Amino acid sequence: MGEMRKIWTEAPSATKKVTYIGVPLGLALAALGIAGDKGGWWEGWSYVTNLLSSLTGLCFAVPFALLILNYLAEPHAEAAQRRAAWRLAERTVAEYDATRERIQAMCRELAWLETADWTDDPVEVHNRMQPVIMNYWRDIRALHNTWEDLRDTVRPRLRENGAHLHLTMDPLKDYDRLVRRVYDEADQFLTNSSQNAALVPIAKDWYTTTVFMIGVRAYPLKDLTPSDSDS
Questions:
Q1: What is the rounded CA–CA span in Å between residue 212 and residue 127?
Q2: Helix boundaries (H) for the chain
Q3: 70-109 and 137-149 helices cross at what angle (nearest 10)?
Q4: Global confidence as pTM
Q5: CA nearest to 189, candidates 208, 213, 207, 175
Q6: Which residues in the chain land under pLDDT 70?
Q7: Non-local CB neighbours of 10 within 8 Å, separated by 6+ positions
Q8: In whole angstroms, how large is the CA radius of gyration of the chain?
Q9: What is the pLDDT of residues 69-124, one digit of tens each?
């Protein structure tokens, strides 16, 4: 009884109106049909009796479908939404991880920056670094865009369906700034022709930040309520 009350309470107003009209009308038509059978009113009126029977059934079937069948179908629809959100998360995380691996290859080519110091020739640093970043610029941009998809699309979808996008770095907003910084500074290295002495420590710091960034993993978790620190 409590479940039926819940179904009725959560039903849309249009469904309630159809039920208010359909059920009493169906009862009235059913009573008319029974009385007609007893009184022998329908002899020679087979089409009318079939029409009356169909209309009576319709008066009960429509409210039943709107109330009961929709209620029974709702869990299946919710489950389908959860599966779709999970598939989206797995697909986007796979793209994100594949991009991370390609940027790891870039970092291996730039590993010489770990030993760079203030006395290094900025012209040599610029000439060695810029072509590498240019070769991997598509991957740097892809990681930036894929991360935005994870943050703006996948994460809300997971939260709507009782799951969570987990990062191995906390909080999420700090990692977001990290990704933007790596992307923006890489763009500056490509567009800036400056080869002054300040380039060496800046380049080394960018390289260190990039290495740290690609070490951060992202993956979906089921049935976990996100913490406030991820906001």
A1: 24
A2: 2-10, 13-39, 46-64, 70-109, 122-135, 137-149, 155-160, 172-191, 199-214
A3: 150
A4: 0.66
A5: 207
A6: 1-4, 6-8, 10, 72-73, 75, 118-120, 193-198, 223-231
A7: none
A8: 33
A9: 777 667 677 878 888 999 999 999 999 999 999 999 999 999 998 887 766 678 88
